[in-house]
Specification:
- With about 180 residues, this protein is mainly alpha-helical.
- The protein is about 55% helix and about 10% strand.
- It is built from eight helices and three strands.
- The termini are far apart.
- The mean pLDDT is about 85.
Length: about 180
């Protein structure tokens, strides 16, 4: 199961679907299509079917809508417990695998963007940076808490004409030995 979840994390489309369903608790393919205009409908349905067959999603409702059956999807796995198990195992190998898959997913987003013929890096406000800091554990926790207070409310924004879907990734590196 862990490999199938990792596959979702590294696949940008599956990751979007996983996160949206996780945030909502349950949702329909119609909602996902309206939320992610960039995902072709056939691709969305194919991934929902695969994620359901893999045991990551489950169908929790069937509703009749104009002669068709609309399925409502929910997570079939507890993502929090999987993350907790990873942390509790304190396995450097598993942690490195998770980090590598996280980075590959992010690399795919950047690759897709950079391959577009009409990119405008400044206008699109894309960027990245590394900021080495010295901080106590308490100072780092306080800073990350403040950043979260700014970012978390944005996840509830609905698609709109002037809104662009963006992905913000945050990495805190392990402490370096000096």
């Amino acid at each position: 199961m862990e490999n199938k979840i990792m596959d979702c994390v590294t696949n940008p489309i599956k990751c979007k679907l996983l996160l949206e369903i996780s945030l909502r608790g349950k949702t329909t393919a119609k909602h996902l299509t309206e939320t992610y205009h960039d995902i072709p409908q056939a691709t969305l349905y194919r991934y929902l079917k695969r994620m359901t067959a893999d045991g990551i999603l489950e169908i929790v409702e069937h509703n009749q809508v104009r002669g068709a059956v609309e399925k409502t999807y929910s997570l079939a796995v507890d993502l929090q417990s999987i993350s907790t198990e990873l942390l509790d195992s304190n396995s450097g190998e598993a942690y490195m695998q998770l980090f590598t898959q996280y980075m590959l997913g992010f690399l795919k987003l950047f690759q897709d963007y950079c391959n577009k013929p009409d990119i405008n890096i400044k206008e699109d406000q894309s960027g990245f940076s590394l900021i080495p800091i010295y901080a106590t554990d308490e100072e780092l926790l306080a800073a990350m808490t403040e950043v979260s207070k700014i970012i978390v409310p944005l996840k509830d924004n609905k698609p709109a004409k002037d809104r662009k879907l963006r992905t913000i990734g945050m990495i805190t590196s392990p402490p370096e030995q000096i």
